[in-house]
Amino acid sequence: MTVKKTGVHVYKCVSYDTDRIRAILGDYFDGIDFSGKKILLKPNMLQAHSPGECVTTHPAVLEAAALYFTGRGAACAIGDSPSGTGIENAQKASEETGMLDVCRRLGIDFDYFNGQPLVRTPAVSPKVYENIFLPESFFSYDVIINVPKLKTHAVTIFTLGVKNMMGLMTGSIKRDFHIRSPHPVQLAEALADLYSVAIPHYTIMDGVEGMHGDGPVSGKKIKLGRIFISSNTNALDAVIEAMCGVDPMKVPLTREISSRGFEKIDNIDIIKGYSGSDPEFDGFEIPLVGRFGARIPAMFFGAVTPFVLHKPLVDRTRCTGCRECIEMCPAGAISFRSGFPVFDLKKCVRCFCCAERCSRGAIREKKNFLTKLLP
User: What does the DSSP 8-state code read for residue 10?
Assistant: First the structure.
């Protein structure tokens, strides 16, 4: 019996030219009937950052997608929930990222998940959360198209397609994930519970420009010039991880999704729209915990990480004293002293939600000396 391979399509795209991106979408999606369908474009709208900072999905990718699918007879909306709480916070993020401007120009809706009624949905084969609470509007769409940003993450190594679905959750629910699952493997299990009830139909990865190093906010911009598309998001993530020099089975979230049978990664057909190698990915930097954190047993993780791996550090030249990090911290580990945040390392779970929330990039990962001694 011949086993059908999962196709992951990789295209070169050296700029955010909407015509080029629409042509790429046409190459993949032409022949699929979207007429009369209601489509959700689910970006990475982590927080209020401008497109050039590479923290969020570039609005040109969303615009190209909306133009393509509406041109095929579908009705599109863009929707997400950023870090933080409240509708005003979400509106600010949609404005700053350029996503709301796309909606205005094209006459489509932005679906703010914040403040909506939540629908309890039983997880499939749960390990951490038996029930997942999703925004009511999520269930009104016929097709979910995930449009993430190619970035690294201090805890999960990467934040790609699968993790991007965490944006369906709002406010305190996101925080609870980090409190109940501080270890990289535990967080992967919790995210897999979520993913079991929110598997997108397709993923279009914005890899034109990405972020490596200390992502998902304070990393370095890297020009990769790629768009990835697949109906198997986990396989798409695995292809990117391998291109970045990381064994996908050593990425806890990718391994968890595959091992639970939601989306396998053992039979992938990489279909490139170009010839040659991918030198743009040479030297891609992986965050510290991504290399070492999953090796530490969960029972020792909280005690060991401050001394062996990392801890949050405030750059006082960037901090404005806005106190948003205090509001965001799920562990209540941040206080203010002399106008700057102070971290209680006994409470801190190293989720770096504070760094994600800081729009000034004033909170960074401090790598400890002993890390240099690890293999």
Answer: E
Do 35 and 117 lie in one domain? The reply is yes
358: domain CATH number?
A: 3.30.70.20
Asked if 10 and 228 touch (Cβ cutoff 8 Å), the reply is yes
Query: What's the pLDDT tens digit per position in 249-302?
Result: 999 999 999 999 999 999 999 999 999 999 999 999 998 665 665 666 655 555
Whether 314 and 196 map to the same domain: the answer is no
Clarify whether residues 172 and 313 are in a common domain.
no
Q: Which domain holds residue 338?
A: 296-373
Tokens 């030198």 label which residue?
Answer: 279
- Alpha-helical (H) ranges within 216-275 are 233-243, 252-259
Q: pTM of the prediction?
A: 0.90
> Number of folded domains in the chain?
2
Give the C-alpha distances (Å, rounded to integers) separating 59 from 50, 66, 70, 146, 170: 10, 10, 16, 14, 22
Are the C-beta atoms of 236 and 222 separated by less than 8 Å?
Answer: no
